[in-house]
Specification:
Layout: H1 3-17, H2 63-70, H3 83-93, H4 97-120, H5 130-134, H6 155-160, H7 175-193, H8 196-205, H9 207-217, H10 229-246, E1 264-270, E2 273-274, H11 275-282, H12 286-292, E3 300-301, E4 307-313, H13 317-325, E5 337-340, H14 347-354, H15 358-365, E6 378-381, E7 391-392, E8 426-430, H16 437-444, H17 448-454, E9 467-471, H18 489-494, E10 510-513, H19 520-527, H20 531-538, E11 552-555, H21 557-563, H22 575-580, E12 591-593, H23 600-606, H24 611-618, E13 630-632
Helix pairs in contact: 2-7, 3-10, 4-7, 7-8, 8-9, 8-10, 11-12, 16-17, 19-20
Length: about 625
């Protein structure tokens, strides 16, 4: 059976399950999906974007599919604010300020270039702020999962969207070409979901995972979805970066020395070129050329289809052309690549990275069972052909007049969903030792039944380190790096007054010495934290994450207190329990002044009122409050 037949049967089965007419059904031709229900065809398992590849294009595209793929998106992205977003704003302006300042400084080099490419592709320029979350504007960024470049593409996904990754070039690092690929991928995702929060979540986790979550949970709202923790943080991080970048002075970023924007001339050569020869003719250094052309792996540059487009420092292109016209010759480039073996690399992995045969690589370098691959050895990557003498192509042709320099790829839509991501309050709670479902519910003023439903729990049993979704409340300040900047979410987007967000006190850390038989999982459980947090605090990057006896690990203060059975200061007992411990019955207050560290839910519990009543009495649009704010208590 061919793959095309298999795909048709999958779509047919999905149509039958959805009660649609039988026959070959394209997702784009299906009836509109009601807002409260999600109907999607079966999609393959796996992570995508960066991750596993999307579904191949069907045999023919319907008119409606083509309309979606070619539509021009809206100019701006709606800024959605809730406690999750405010938490990340607080982090970026607090403990993470130095990191965000470094990202902003680096953004000066690429910001306008990225925005222009996005506009050419018909995408909202606001999507440029996704690069803050992905790579911090580092074109050479590489993740533990081998995602590379400013937009963090895996090699498989990048090739799907027209980028070349081989022994000479890795276009995932090219600031222009990778942005074209990212814009087309995001256009593809927006065509599926029709909603930017959902599309951005799919860029991180893959459309298959998001579609399956929407179908299983019966919601079209990103803020209602249970997704992997990384994805649940991904969109709030983007919204926080968007809010800060739209008005940096309001958040205290007033003295950033942005890097100078990229300035260059661009030349097109027929054949491969040697950067050392070009640098000599242009009167610049090889390092300058490599900074302008980060996609090229070494001193030899070779583009796709025998044409190499090269950036040279601004003002040097004309002089270089003049010298070539006067008779200067460009020597044939040496296409041989040399690679220094790093720890953990394999011959098969290196061959895949450079798109060459592993057997040929072993033969050329004399690698066998008797002479295995060793770390630190420099091996030769054989060239697949001999380079001709390069020649300059017609300079009158502008290679960047459009985005056609990245080959277009048609990818069918596996589904069409009417996304409806409306801002909702939500927070996550990490279960600490000794906590029960009832005690967690009491902390947030919700019921155990709600917690079970929101987290699809089959029983009331919890384990230390487990994360629970809590809806409708901003959550304890212990879960957020900084309190909100304003009582009203609307004021975060409309006020012209500068905002100074209070920073949380720097976390006091404690040290843990690893004992025999302990693992990251057992240590995380002991302190009521997650394994991911332990990895981050101690910069453990290996996949296995093994620890050695005697190794010292850092444990952050908010969770270290749990080991000593100390309750966090802001987690007060419910009002009913407080009343049992006190014979006195104080007069009921009519107002409350917010202290640093207090949350709306904690204040509501203290005064025996509901969070909703407290919001209504003070006309609050969210649970975000700030120290010193005076709240009116409902009667």
């Amino acid at each position: 059976m061919t793959f095309r037949q298999t795909l048709r049967r999958a779509l047919l089965a999905a149509a039958i399950c959805a009660g649609l007419p039988t026959g070959v059904v394209h997702a784009a031709d299906a009836p509109a999906v009601p807002r409260d229900s999600v109907v999607v065809p079966a999609v393959p398992q796996g992570r995508y974007g960066p991750g596993t590849a999307p579904l191949p294009v069907p045999e023919q595209e319907s008119d409606s599919e083509r309309e979606v793929l070619e539509q021009v998106a809206t100019e701006d992205i709606e800024l959605q604010m809730n406690a999750d977003v405010v938490k990340w704003i607080g982090f970026f302006t607090g403990n993470g300020r130095s990191t965000f300042e470094r990202w902003m400084k680096r953004s000066g080099r690429y910001m306008e270039l990225f925005r222009n490419v996005l506009q050419k592709e018909g995408m909202p320029p606001d999507l440029v702020h996704l690069v803050y979350v992905e790579s911090g504007f580092n074109v050479n960024a590489r993740s533990y999962a081998a995602a590379v470049g400013p937009w963090q593409f895996l090699a498989s996904t990048s090739r799907l969207f027209g980028l070349h990754v081989n022994q000479w070039v890795d276009e995932r690092k090219d600031p222009e070409k990778s942005t074209v690929a990212a814009a087309r991928y995001l256009k593809h995702l927006f065509g599926i979901f029709g909603d930017w929060p959902l599309a951005l979540a799919a860029y991180n986790a893959g459309e298959g995972r998001v579609l399956r979550a929407m179908k299983a949970q019966g919601t079209t709202n990103y803020w209602n979805l249970r997704l992997p923790q990384q994805t649940e943080d991904y969109v709030p991080k983007f919204m926080a970066a968007l809010a800060i970048s739209r008005d940096p002075a309001r958040y205290g970023f007033t003295e950033i020395e942005f890097d100078e924007p990229m300035a260059f001339d661009e030349l097109a050569f027929k054949g491969a070129v040697d950067l050392r020869s070009i640098a000599k003719l242009a009167g610049c250094t090889v390092a300058e050329l490599q900074a302008l052309n980060p996609a090229f792996r070494g001193a030899t540059a070779r583009g796709a289809n025998g044409v190499t487009t090269l950036r040279v420092p601004a003002g040097t292109g004309e002089a270089l052309m003049g010298r070539i016209a006067e008779g200067e010759k460009l020597p044939a480039a040496d296409l041989t690549v040399r690679h220094k073996v790093q720890r953990g690399e394999t011959l098969a992995g290196i061959a895949k990275e450079y798109s060459v045969s592993a057997r040929e690589l072993a033969r050329v370098n004399g690698i066998s069972k008797a002479k295995p691959l060793k770390r630190g050895r420099v091996i030769t990557i054989p060239a697949s052909f001999r380079a001709p003498t390069p020649e300059v192509l017609d300079p009158a042709v502008d290679p960047r007049a459009s985005t056609a320099y990245v080959p277009e790829r048609r990818i069918g839509l596996p589904a069409r969903v009417n996304g409806n991501s409306e801002t909702l309050e939500r927070t996550s709670h990490t279960v600490r030792r000794g906590q029960t479902l009832a005690s967690v519910a009491a902390i947030y003023g919700v019921s155990s039944a709600d917690l079970r439903q929101w987290n699809a729990l089959k029983s009331d049993r919890l384990r230390p380190g487990q994360r629970l979704r809590v809806r409708g409340v901003a959550g304890p300040v212990a879960a957020a790096p900084a309190p909100a900047a304003d009582a009203s979410v609307a004021s975060l987007t409309t006020s012209t007054e500068p905002i100074v967000l209070e920073q949380s006190p720097a976390p006091v850390a404690r040290r843990h010495t690893v004992k025999a038989g302990e693992s990251l999982t057992s240590i995380a459980s002991q302190y009521g934290v997650s394994v991911a947090e332990l990895r981050e605090w101690n910069r453990i990057t290996s996949r296995k994450g093994t620890v050695q006896r005697g190794q010292k690990l850092t444990i952050r203060a908010a969770d270290a207190a749990v080991a000593a059975n100390e309750a966090p200061a802001d987690l007060e007992a419910p009002a009913t329990e407080k009343a049992k411990r006190s014979d006195a019955k104080p007069a009921r207050a009519t107002t409350h002044t917010v202290r640093r560290g207090e949350t709306l839910s904690a204040i509501a519990r203290r005064h025996g009122v509901s969070v909703e009543a407290l919001r209504k009495a003070n006309q609050l649009q969210s649970s975000a409050i700030q120290a010193g704010q005076r709240l009116r208590l409902p009667g």
